[in-house]
Amino acid sequence: MTRIYATISGETNRHPQHPDKSERNMTIKKIVYATDLSRRADRAGRRALQLASDHQADLLALSVVEADLQEESLVRLMRGSPEEVARQLVEGTDKALAEHMEKLGVVEGGTVQSRAVLGHGHKTILSEAKAFGADLLVIGAHGHHHLRDIFLGTTAENLVRNTDRPILVVKNEPQGRYRKVLVPVDFSERSRHALELAVSSVADDGTVQVLHVFNTAPLDRIYRTGADDETVRRIHQQAMAETQQDLSAFLAQAEVDLDKVESTIRVGYPPLVIEEAANALNAELLVMGTHGRKHWQDVLLGGVARRVVNQVRCDVLLSRGRA
After folding, report:
1. Is 251:192 a contact under the CB 8 Å cutoff?
2. Which of 120, 139, 165 is the last residue of a domain?
3. 205 CB contacts (<8 Å, ≥6 apart)?
């Protein structure tokens, strides 16, 4: 039975583990770390190595060489045919990538391999990840063109749109396993999968905070129809009570260790509330399902996820999860 340690109006509830409930863990046996070899990508590489060691997983470091070999200036500068230029670019990048991984460290209990390939961004990353059988993709928040092209809005979004594999966007230097993890949920199956990922990612002594944002926009529309304050207040109280019931049922059905889980309901505009909650918690990792219930589909990934991923300071784990 759930014991309530605090009220639900923006505060935190604890959820002790049911003694008969089994825990479903995210299995990570193979990880792909995609890098453009920029300095900003180093922290993603170190996080990938740490995760591979924690899970005794095999790690593939991948760098996609993107070059328009039909561009005459490039071929002329490198003094060769398009095929020869491609070979030189791939060989050079492959060598640089191997040296890069040697500097970053080793995987304890797993293997590390590196590969440079000629291709086209997210399509090539996904193709290589599929061939490798990756359970997780790890990328950096920004690459060489971070001022001109927001990496999170292009590569990460394209990856999420085209794969069911979880994608970890690393922003910070790794400091061991994640200890403070925030999971925004909308009670969908994909949110449940995000919660499972979060619990599997947190340190043994860490905490996962589940956040549901109660969006007041529908109430605002009711108010504008001319409804009196008492009617709006009654509808709000009823909706909050139903939301608490939904949250309790959602957690009761989740096959995770609830000893690590706290929950809270907050009111407001989802992107802003999620960002504020992440900052207040000093979260090290935010885990988000990128498509949820119908009323969120227009904003998740396109609105909520894009804004949150770009604004929060912590690492972000994105997953389309199960439908």
Report:
1. no
2. 165
3. 179
Structure tokens at 69: 């070999």
Report the C-alpha gap between 8 and 13 in whole angstroms. Answer: 7
Per-residue DSSP letter, 156: I
The answer to whether residues 262 and 303 belong to one domain is yes
**What is the Cα–Cα distance from 196 to 319, expressed in whole angstroms?**
11
Question: What values do phi and psi take at 184, rounded to 5?
Answer: -70, 135
Final residue of a structural domain among 114, 147, 165: 165
Q: Are residues 225 and 289 in the same domain?
A: yes
Tell me the torsion sign for CA atoms 252, 257, 262, 265: negative
Specify the pTM: 0.81
Are 138 and 237 in the same domain? no
Spatial CB neighbours of 185, under 8 Å, sequence gap ≥ 6: 191, 192, 194, 195, 210, 211, 212, 247, 250, 289
What is the residue range of 312's domain?
13-25+174-319
**How many distinct structural domains can be found in the chain?**
2
CATH number of domain containing 232: 3.40.50.620
DSSP one-letter string for 213-268: EE--HHHHHHHHTT--HHHHHHHHHHHHHHHHHHHHHHHHH--S-GGGEEEEEEES
Residue 136 near residue 197 (C-beta atoms within 8 A): no
Highest mean pLDDT among 49-58, 70-79, 105-114: 49-58
CA distance 189 to 209: 18
Characterize the bridge pairing of strands 202-214 and 13-14: unpaired
Q: Are 206 and 260 a contacting pair, CB within 8 Å? A: yes
pLDDT tens string 102-135: 999 888 888 999 999 998 888 999 999 999 999 9
Indicate the DSSP class of residue 33.
Answer: E
